[in-house]
Amino acid sequence: MILLLLLILPVLFFFLFKNQKERRSKTLYPPSPPGLPIIGNLHQFDSNNPHLYLFKLAQKYGPLMSMKLGKVRVLIVSSAKMAKEVLKTHDLVFCSRPPSLGMQKLSYGGLDIAFSPYNDSWRELRKISVLHLLSNKQVHSFRPIREDEVIRMIKNLEVAGSSGEDNAVNLSVTMLNLTSTLICRIAFGKRFGENESERRRFDELMIESQAMQGGFFVSDFLPWFSWVDKLSGMLSRLDKTFRDMDEFYQEMIDEHLDPYYKDKIMNPNNILDMLIQLKEQKLCSIDLTWDHIKAMLFDIFVAGTDTSAAVTVRAMTALIKSPDAMKKLQNEIRETIGNKGFVNENDVPKLPYLKAVIQETLRLYPPAPLLLPRETLEECMVEGYTIPPKTLVHINAWAIARDPQSWEKANEFLPERFLNSSIDVIGKDFEVIPFGAGRRGCPGVSIGLATVDMALANLVYSFDWELPKGVSIEDIDTDVLPGITMHKKNPLCLLPRNYVNCA
User: Fold this and answer.
1) Cβ of 122: how many Cβ atoms within 10 Å?
2) Which of 448, 428, 450 is nearest to 437 (CA)?
3) Looking at the chain, which terminus has fewer C-beta neighbours within 10 angstroms, N or C?
4) What is the dihedral of CA 404, 410, 415, 417, to 10 degrees?
5) How far from the centroid of its chain's Cα atoms is residue 361's Cα?
6) Cross-strand partners of 394
7) Integer Cα distance of 45 and 56 in angstroms
């Protein structure tokens, strides 16, 4: 009997190995660049400009490409057709989030909307956001705050413009100050602009949380080398950032729970008070904890401040490098507004070229060139390729919006392409998806675009912008800072000359 088993076992193992090999051979994954054992393509990955690196690879391996980053299988999507497959046809399969160390830590283990895995809790939080926090009615109610903060910004710039000196204004800093103050009033009902130490603290928290959110942690891809994150100081830096952020949120919550302080809040209809009310009155189907509220504040705090500032600076950069487009936009706004002195939100729908400029800016410079990563919930087939469960998915919005198959003169700034065009940027047209699409599309699109509309319209209306002495158009770069958001690498510094016909 033992002898028989010894004779049969090798045969059984042979056929078992043969069948497994045949099954593997029938599994067709998307094309992939060659990698190394264990680390895969990790040594090739450019974490400073990943959208450019992946764009170049896609030109060789196709719009649906796979990679291995350590133990993680990664799918790269680089065309409108493939984006539609992932974000619409198979949206439910591709709608979760990967357990990235930095994102999970800062979002309290995925208790927010942006970084939560797809589950019942996420669906309820998304509903809270859409119905209560960022509904069209709510976004409209924030209009007086937007207009007030833009007026303050323009007045400060007018002082610089009337000085007669050639002191350039740093528009990158100006826009971050505007959007951070705006978000603080919307989220917390208070301004941080007057107190220098508060302003500095807020800015440092925002910058550091952005760095950690997009930071590279070895343990995400090579868990057996997690000690590298400790040795490099990344773990201690992440822990400190989390503690600082948590302390800031707790201070805000304590203030809003203090009856005495409530009387001092500038905007009683702020997001934090709405969240506290939802928690105290148990108005949602999940047990809304303080950690949920802090995690949602993290989304609003970072995304609301960063993206609107980046888009406005990118638009001004594109306009200063395209004098004809700048003149055309100034003429449209000034002829429409006349000597009123300020562009308010009722005026924006009358400015089609303004909308076209912003759409073209979002096409060329999406705020997040790689959309927030997704993770597959189960195996599925896309274009005949097998996509396994737990695959990390990067959608290269930057590459998609510059695809010459979708766009004529794809790398040129041509706002006219959006005039009389049905294509929009809110996630229905996959040729340009700066805010994503499907279930995980950005819920803050309306509030972000409203801020950009107001800021850009008034910057162009109120001033004739000039380059500093010794600087030419060619010197204005479009390089990108490392990080999730597409910030301009070098600050945009321009001279504001007050428009004399503005009353």
Assistant:
1) 23
2) 428
3) N
4) -20
5) 14
6) 76
7) 12
Inter-residue contact 329 to 319 (CB < 8 Å): yes
Percent of the chain residues past pLDDT 70, beyond the cut: 92
Which pLDDT score, from 0 to 100, does residue 197 have?
78
Q: Which three-class secondary structure state does DSSP give residue 95? A: coil
Q: What is the dihedral of CA 133, 139, 145, 149, to 10 degrees?
A: 110
Can you read off the two tokens belonging to residue 345? 């939100």
Whether the per-residue pLDDT at 304 is higher than 70: the answer is yes
**DSSP E strand stretches across 168-248:** 169-170
Please say whether the beta carbons of 457 and 333 come within 8 A: yes
Structure tokens at 443: 């819920």
Residue 10: how many other CB atoms lie within 10 Å: 9
Q: Is the pLDDT of residue 302 over 80?
A: no
Torsion sign across C-alpha atoms 388, 27, 54, 69: positive
Domains of the chain: 39-498 (1.10.630.10)
Q: Give pLDDT tens digits for 222-280.
A: 999 999 999 999 999 999 999 999 999 999 999 999 887 766 666 668 999 999 999 99
User: Which single residue is written with the structure tokens 């949206």?
Assistant: 91
pLDDT at 16 over 50: no
State the distance between the two ends of the chain, measured CA to CA, in whole angstroms.
Answer: 104
Split at pLDDT 50, 70, 90, the class of 18 is very low
Distant-in-sequence, close-in-space partners of 352: CB < 8 Å, separation ≥ 6: 332, 419
AA identity, residue 415: P
DSSP state of 28: -
Calculate the CA 62 to chain-centre distance: 25
Q: Could you tell me the pTM of the whole model?
A: 0.90
Distance CA 226, CA 191 (A): 40
Distance CA 397, CA 372 (A): 10
Tokens of 494: 């321009």
Q: Which residues contact 411 (CB under 8 A, 6 or more apart)?
A: 364, 402
Give the pLDDT band of residue 487 (cuts 50, 70, 90): confident
Main-chain dihedrals φ then ψ at residue 114, nearest 5 degrees: -70, -40
Closest by CA position to 390, among listed 399, 381, 379: 379
Nearest alpha-carbon partner for 187 in 107, 269, 287, 283: 269
What are 404's two structure tokens?
């010459």
Among 175, 75, 164, which Cα is nearest to 394's?
75
